[in-house]
Design a protein that fits this description.
alpha/beta; five-stranded parallel beta sheet; Rossmann fold; 4 domains; Helicase, Ruva Protein, domain 3
């Protein structure tokens, strides 16, 4: 865009500087001029210069040296070298050093304008790509959530809606789906973002200690209580308390939690003092709390108090679009942590990831990628570097996985009358993959065709 493109002309000849300034300024560019390399560097430090036209031969600092020093200040600056007639070879050498183009003296203003126009369009394209990449990252990377599947994008929109409020949120999802990641995203998008985020697992402690962990205790209230201790509610005052595996709390703790949510007050174990607390509670569970309420295992009033807003996290197998972005994120993370130059996955690994059921969800995917990074000796993770109990699980009936696979393929081929394309579609694999399998089981397939 001409209006926002500032050009610097550097030449020790007055007539060259003035003529280029007048011409380029007349067609809409902002033009700065300098008669030496040192003066040019000062301008570059003070103003946003996108393109520099620099004379190749100047007293003191020449055009090549100036170009290199300019790039140290502004790596994205584009340089056009101005050279005298008959020094084309030198100009070509300048391009090898990093110049984008060159013009000969005496130059044609229209040619200079065309070179500048092409450079501006090139820079605009780069900036648009950077902007687009940032938008994509903003969309697919939200507060630690990596998502492009429609289901997860809806959850991100729900987080944006509920986060600014004080509403209690119940996150439902299977183990490993990322419930704490969602809770942290809500906290970081809320007005409480600069206050504590306290996370605790309700299943990690014995029932006898859970109340003390949540509400604190007074000295001497039970064996081992040698001093007063604040609980999670007090520690998280003005912030957010994330209660994972909320379905594990016992009946007594449920009563005290309900009171904390309704009255914003707690009492330490063994104490009588009522303590006011301002805590936003986000709870999570992998259990069916509705069924627990019907069966008497969870208080109905507490369930509705927790369930003001519900976020249901889909298992990883139901958000297939997110598998590869997540895998690439974990690959980059663990490659950096382990100083490995691993850039991608082999085609076999990609195919496996897209066809595996992921019973352990995102956590299982992350663990698998971490292992692959640690074991890999190449720039791409190979199938043999992944956990073999995942790649080749043992069937429950004792049959080998190869035998089960072969029988299944044969069965599907019989159903499709040997139509490989239809069989591949039913099996959920690529046609090339099925052809490879057929080649592997050549004898059996031959019998089918006869």
């Amino acid at each position: 865009m001409r209006k926002r493109t500032r050009i610097l002309v550097v030449d020790d000849e007055d007539i060259v500087r003035e003529s280029l300034r007048d011409w380029l300024g007349g067609v809409g560019y902002k033009v700065e001029i300098a008669e030496s390399g040192d003066e040019a560097l000062q301008i570059i430090k003070q103003k946003e210069i996108k393109i520099m036209l620099a004379d190749l031969f100047m007293p003191g600092m020449d055009g090549i040296e100036l170009m290199k020093k300019a790039k140290e200040i502004v790596p994205t600056i584009s340089t056009v070298i101005i050279t005298a007639h008959g020094t084309i070879q030198t100009a070509i050498s300048a391009i090898r050093e990093g110049a984008h183009d060159y013009v000969e003296k005496p130059f044609c203003p229209e040619k200079v304008e065309l070179i500048i126009k092409n450079l501006v369009e090139h820079q605009d394209l780069i900036e648009e790509n950077i902007s687009l990449r940032r938008k994509i990252e903003d969309r697919f990377h939200f507060e630690g959530i990596i998502a492009k599947s429609p289901k997860m994008l809806k959850i991100i929109e729900l987080i944006k809606t509920v986060a600014p409020t004080n509403a209690t949120v119940l996150i439902i999802g299977k183990t490993g789906t990322g419930k704490e990641v969602i809770a942290r995203a809500i906290h970081h998008q809320s007005p409480r973002r600069n206050k504590p985020f306290i996370a605790t697992s309700c299943a990690a402690l014995p029932e006898s200690l859970l109340e003390s962990e949540l509400f604190g205790h007074e000295k001497g209230s039970f064996t081992g209580a040698v001093e007063r201790k604040k609980g999670k509610f007090e520690a998280g005052d003005s912030g957010t308390l994330f209660l994972d595996e909320i379905g594990e709390i016992n009946a007594n703790t449920q009563i005290h939690l309900l009171r904390a949510l309704e009255e914003k007050k707690i009492t330490r174990v063994g104490g009588n003092e009522e303590i006011k607390v301002d805590v936003r509670v986000i709870a999570a569970t992998n259990k069916d709390l509705k069924t627990m309420v019907k069966q008497g295992g969870f208080r109905e009033d507490l369930y509705y108090r927790l369930n003001v807003v519900t976020i249901e996290l889909p298992p990883l197998k139901d958000r297939m679009e997110d598998i590869l972005p997540l895998a690439e994120h974990f690959l980059k993370k663990y490659a950096e942590e382990n100083n490995k130059r691993i850039k991608n996955f082999s085609p076999e690994v990609v195919e496996f990831m897209l066809n595996y059921s992921w019973p352990g969800n995102v956590r299982e995917l992350e663990n698998m990628i971490e292992r692959g990074v640690i074991l890999s000796k190449n720039t791409a993770i190979a199938l043999g570097e992944l956990p073999q109990d995942i790649i080749h699980p043992a069937p429950a009936d004792g049959k080998t996985i190869e035998a089960v696979e072969k029988n299944h393929i044969i069965s599907v081929l019989e159903e499709t009358n040997g139509n490989v394309s239809k069989a591949a579609k039913i099996l959920g694999v690529r046609r090339t993959t099925l052809y490879n399998k057929l080649k592997k089981y050549e004898h059996t397939v031959h019998k089918l065709d006869t």
